[in-house]
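Obj: model holo form, ligand = L-rhamnitol.
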Amino acid sequence: MYQLAKKEYEKYGIDTESAIAKLKDIPVSIHCWQGDDVIGLDGGGSLSGGIQTTGNYPGRARNFEELKADIKKAFALMPGKKRLNLHASYAVGAIVDRDKYEPKHFKAWVDFAKEIGLQGIDFNPTMFSHDKVKDGLTLSSPNENIRKFWVEHCKTCLKIAEYFATEMNSHCLVNIWIPDGFKDVPADRLTPRLRLKKSLDEILSVKYDKKKVIVAVESKVFGIGVESYTVGSNEFYQNYAAKNDICCLLDNGHYHPLEYVSDKIPALLAFYDRVALHVTRGVRWDSDHVVLFEDELKEIAKEIVRNDATEKVLIGLDYFDASINRLSAWVTGQRAMQKALLYALLINHSELKQLQENADFTTLMVKQEEVKDLPFGAVWKEYLKRENLSEDYLNEIKKYEKEVLKERV
Ligand code: RNT
Ligand code: ZN
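Output (holo C-alpha cells):
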C-alpha cells in the first residue's frame, strides 16, 4: 500500500520519504497534566483558576509513581520526538511553598525524562489551585504579599527551567499563564494590567540564559467564573512580548470561536523568532477537549510546515479529559498532532503558493481539493511501522487498564 501511495504522491511532485524524515524530527511537548486531571503533586487536591476537568473515569494517577508509570506507557505508544511539559505543581517531595521551589524538587523528573529518552522538558509556573490565589488574582493582585509571592514563584521557575535545559541539553520553554480576571463587569480594567506588567518586569529582571530558557506569555479570553474580564488578554501579552523580547504562546482554545490560531501563527512569524502553541480542542468555549485530526488542526500544521517554521513554532499539547481512559486521551491527541503535521508535509505547497501569487484562484481551489484525497493513510501507517508502532493502541491501553488502572480504587 505504501509503495502505491508513494507513486501516487509522486505524480503531484510530493516526496513521501522526505515527509516521513521531516516528521520524525519535529518535537511535540506533551503535557503531564492529562494523567491526573491537573491535580498536581504538591498538595492542593483540587483544580481552580477557571479551568475544569469533568468526568470520573477510573484510574487517575494519584501520585508520582503512578503518573510516571502512565506517562511511560502512553509515551511508548506515541510516534516521533517527544518532550515533557511539566507544571510547577508537579514538584516531587517539596515541603516548602511554591515560592521556594528549587531544582532539587524536579531532579526526579529529569532522571525520568532521561530514562525514557525524551528530547527536553518544558515548564509552567502554577498560579492556580493554591490558597495564595486571592480573590481570583495572582500577578495582578492589589495585595502586595500575594503579588510578590507569585513573582517569587515565577523567578524560581526560571531557575528550575535553566536547570532542565542544562540537564537535558535542550531549551526549556517557560510558559506564564495566570487565571486572573473578574466574573462580572469591572470598574477598572487598566490597574490590574499595570500591576501584571510590573510583575512581569520584576520576574524578567532575574538573570537567565536566553539560549536555554524561552519565556512565553499565554493569553486568554475568559474562564469559568471569570467571564467578563481577563487581565492577561491577547493584546496585553502581544504588546508585552514584543516590547520585552519574549515569546507569545497561542492556545487555540483561548479565542473567540470564529478567530483562528492558524491565522495568528503567520501574523506572529512576521515579527517573532519563535511562537509557542498550546494545541487543544475547544468545543464552544476553552473546553480543553482531546485534540483530534480536524480541519483547524490541519490548518495549524500547514502554517507551521509551509512557512518552514518547524523550528520556530514550539508545539505543545494542552487538554484534559477525565471522562475517558486518560492514556488513550494522551495518545489520541498526540497522534492527531503528528497526523496533522504529516498531512501538511504531504502537500505541494510551493505549487499552490505560486497559483495564489499568479491570482489563479480557480486552479488553486481545484488543486487544494485534489490533494485532500491522496492516500494519506498508507503513509501514516508506514511512518508508524518505522517508529515500531502499530495503528492499534487501544488494545494495549485496555490491557494496561485491566492490569494497572483497575487496581487504583
Ligand atoms: C488554561 C491554560 C493553561 C492551562 C495549563 C494547565 O486555560 O490553557 O495553559 O491549561 O497551564
Ligand atoms: Zn493553555
